[in-house]
Design goal:
By secondary structure, the protein is an alpha/beta fold. The protein has one domain: Alpha-Beta Complex (2-enoyl-CoA Hydratase, Chain A, domain 1). It has helices at residues 2-9, 20-24, 28-32, 70-84, 118-134, 151-157, 198-208, 210-219, 225-231, 247-256, 268-281, 285-305, 307-318, 321-339, and strands at 45-50, 55-60, 91-96, 139-144, 148-149, 161-165, 185-186, 236-238. The protein binds ligand LCXROUX7.
């Protein structure tokens, strides 16, 4: 049933290689077929590979908050595609150059008084980020050193493993002392007066289970690290007390991390992410990818099948007067809060 639907509903531009037959095949080509051919501003992400370890880094680099604009979404897809073409690489660490914000979710300014050509393109680019991460042949490890609300949480959930910084006074998240920083993660859309799109909500359901997700979606809950761990929203929480760095890992990270974020070799989250990435990289790729297909292919097919309808709904929803009013108020409050610091 899903296959003919899929071919008719696949987005013309980004999914043109995604034939139903490929979907049925239990091999790497399924994941490769989901890649895009979008061009991008490279500096919005920093990426680098350590071929000896089979690990790559993809660090979002859009100050101040890594909020997801059309261009950042495209840059993530392009960078992931480049990494994907390197057969020596099996794992990627998805990270942020900002040590206190993983990603603030959608760039809410994209949603206010939107341009009617750009808005669907923007939404399409977010869908593509999800498809490319969730359907990647690569094992993707989220190194969540800072806040990850809404679509920031979606990015993390689309990865294979999530490691979050536990926070604390005088912590050394990037090797420098800083004041207390407790990050949070969750789908907080209802707090903005909007609902998470169905595929994002379903991703939360698959990650933490039906009832906890139902409640978290309704309340727009942002979980601090230990609560996120208990709910299963993250797989590991790292604190100075719980993790001891190893000289070998720091050395390998120094080889992997590009110049502007080389000091993150001292980040415990980054160190644990690297160890996890190495672990995944040692598994037979065929076997690992086949096992990923078991849990992900059906929901991806469903999401792709409803992609155009999702975009249409999103655009008409965002353009409603009441939604625009709520979003404007939200952005004003955000800016006021930031100024008052
Ligand atoms: C029946 C079917 C229903 C179907 C529904 C279908 C479609 C659904 C329709 C819509 C769905 C839309 C989906 C949305 C998902 C999203 O991702 S919405 C975005 C949600 N994000 C947030 O709410 C996060 C907001 N930001 C924060 O809470 C904080 O900034 C932070 C991340 C916790 C960090 O705090 P911190 O104190 O460190 O930093 P500041 O607050 O000072 O921020 C610094 C700087 O960054 C700017 N900024 C922060 N977040 C955003 C953002 N999301 N977009 C744009 N800009 C952001 C902030 O304004 C500051 O900038 P400055 O003022 O220039 O200093």
């Amino acid at each position: 049933m899903a296959a003919p639907l899929l071919s008719s509903l696949c987005c013309r531009h980004s999914l043109r290689h995604c034939s139903p037959r490929r979907f049925a095949r239990n091999d790497l080509s399924f994941f490769r077929s989901l890649s895009t051919s979008i061009s991008s501003e490279k500096s919005l992400v920093l990426s680098h590979v350590n071929e000896d370890a089979g690990v790559a880094i993809l660090a979002m680099n859009r100050p101040p908050a890594n909020s997801l604009s059309l261009e950042l979404n495209e840059a993530i897809c392009t960078s992931l595609k480049e990494i994907d073409t390197n057969p020596k690489i099996q794992s990627v660490i998805l990270a942020s150059t900002n040590p206190t914000i993983f990603s603030a979710g959608l760039d809410v300014t994209e949603l206010i008084s939107p341009d009617d050509q750009r808005l669907p393109k923007f939404w399409n680019s977010l869908q593509q980020v999800y498809i490319d991460l969730y359907g990647s042949r690569l094992a993707i490890i989220a190194a969540i050193q800072g806040h990850a609300p809404a679509a920031g949480c979606m990015l993390a959930m689309a990865c294979d493993y999530r490691i979050m910084y536990g926070g604390g006074e005088g912590s050394t998240v990037d090797g420098r002392k800083r004041k207390s920083h407790i990050p949070t993660i969750g789908l907080n859309e209802t707090q903005l007066g909007i609902a998470a799109p169905p595929w994002m909500g379903q991703l939360l359901v698959r990650t933490i289970g039906f009832r906890p997700a139902e409640r978290a979606l309704a309340l727009g809950t942002l979980f601090p690290p230990m609560e996120a761990l208990i709910e299963g929203l993250v797989d590991d929480v790292i604190t100075e007390e719980s993790f001891s760095p190893s000289a070998d890992t720091i050395h390998a990270l120094e080889k992997l991390l590009p110049d502007p974020i080389r000091n993150q070799a001292l980040s415990l989250v980054m160190q644990k992410a690297f160890q996890e990435a190495e672990l995944y990289a040692k598994i037979s790729p065929q076997a690992r990818v086949a096992s990923k297909l078991v849990t992900r292919s059906e929901s991806l097919k469903d999401m792709i099948a409803s992609r155009e309808a999702d975009t249409e709904y999103f655009c008409s929803f965002i353009c409603q007067d009441t939604v625009q009013k709520n979003l404007k108020k939200y952005v004003e409050a955000l800016k006021k809060k930031s100024k008052s610091k």
